[in-house]
Amino acid sequence: MTDVLMSTYNPLPISIERGEGAWVWDTQGKKYLDAFAGIAVTSLGHCHPAIVKHLQEQVTKVIHSSNILTVPEQHALAKKLTQISGMEQVFFANSGAEANECAIKLARMYGHNKKISNPTIVVMEGAFHGRTLATITASGNRRVQAGFEPLVQGFLRAPYNDLDALRAIAKNAQNVVAIMVEPVQGEGGVRAADDNYLPEVRKICDENGWLMILDEIQTGMGRTGKWFAFQYHDFKPDILTSAKALGNGLPISACLVHGKADNLFKPGNHGSTFGGNPLCCSTALKVIETLEQENALANAKEVGAYLLAQLQDALLSIKGVIAVRGKGLLIGIELDRPCRDLLAMSAEQGVLISTTAEKVVRLVPPLIITKEQTDLIVNVLARVIPQFLQ
Ligand code: PLP
To answer: How does residue 1 score in pLDDT terms, banded at 50, 70 and 90?
Structure first.
């Protein structure tokens, strides 16, 4: 049979028919605990009653209007997002890559306004920022770039967590306008910034008149226990990107700015047909309000710390397990070998997981998951990982 889908993925033969909270059922009726939430997307779990009710009401009112008109739902969501982030202005798009494209364009515009005609953005080894041409260039992984050359100009790469490398760039490089960085490299294997790294990056940006762009597409919206991971520190980025859990499954992303990144675009500089539509914006606002009502951030912090400790206890003594690390409900288990086969082994035992960076099992369950439910994840992984490593 000719496959009618381009083979960009290599999916497991499991199809989800319905879900409820952290549980899903496949088309054969088998039940699973969802420990990857559609790759850090369905933070409120599946079919949360408040979101279902809101969606049912909103689709009977209006789904799409246009950015040619005023969209009140955009204003309401932007107001809420600026409140929870401390940022000042927002552009809405449909995916993480698009939010990052917006950030990259803003940084270039900032450079051009300063008469830098060849603006350069410093990006990190191991980074992942998306699949458009500019964002694969910004990503620090040859596998996402190979075959798509020529890549986009205007990026300079530095090792992650290496402040001296950034200081050397500040001394020697011309035309730098921004540093773009993730607080935890999710696709890069759940690798967190060192404690002092982000505040020092902020300082380096300030000393050199550069913008600090934080990609919180995976870490944001409560995943690490705060709305955004930078809020564990006492600084703000100039540009912040968010997507994934923002719409709990509806495609919406946001690029937020603050301070010297405000007001860089003028009408006609940037846009999106679907971006900021009433359905996605009103739902994202309902998602944020529901995360607040559910106390989901505190849960992510508490259950995340519990799950991490349980996993460390159960797995670290196993030969072949290199590290168990994470922040909130973004947890990685690094093994000594490629581990994609674990997806099916774990699914067979009733737990859906994801893997990343080849050798890392990544757990990004819904933020409303309970301690009892995470016990099932630990039990299953404590069984299948040793089997797999044998
Ligand atoms: N940035 C980060 C940190 C991500 O983790 C991802 C997706 O995994 C993206 C950007 C790209 O987002 P999207 O797939 O929605 O374009």
So the answer is: very low
